[in-house]
Amino acid sequence: MTKLELTTQLMNLAVAGYFNSEKFTKERLNNYISKMCRNTGDKLYMEISLPDGHWLFKITRYDAGDWDYYIPDTREQEAKLTAEFLGKGA
User: Fold this and answer.
1) Residue 69 located in a structural domain
2) CA atoms of 9 and 75, how far apart (whole Å)
3) What is the pTM of this model?
4) In the chain, how many domains are there?
5) In angstroms, rounded to a whole number, what is the distance separating the alpha carbons of residues 77 and 83?
6) pLDDT, tens digit, for every residue of 12-44?
């Protein structure tokens, strides 16, 4: 998906636009992602506020301007993502 599609989907999921415990606008989130993921293969870990709590999630930039995100379904999956983020393996 494009970065704009990714940003739109994430904004639609987030409760009141909260990421990393801060309120984001769509433009701010789009700009933040651009600054943090400049190169192919870059990953960005953030926290998103969802109706069932705060969750760690990951954004990945692929070749040719393709983007994707991963939000865990369970706290067990989130723990694995946290370990990945901290460099402790999955």
Assistant:
1) yes
2) 21
3) 0.92
4) 1
5) 10
6) 999 999 999 999 999 999 999 999 999 999 999
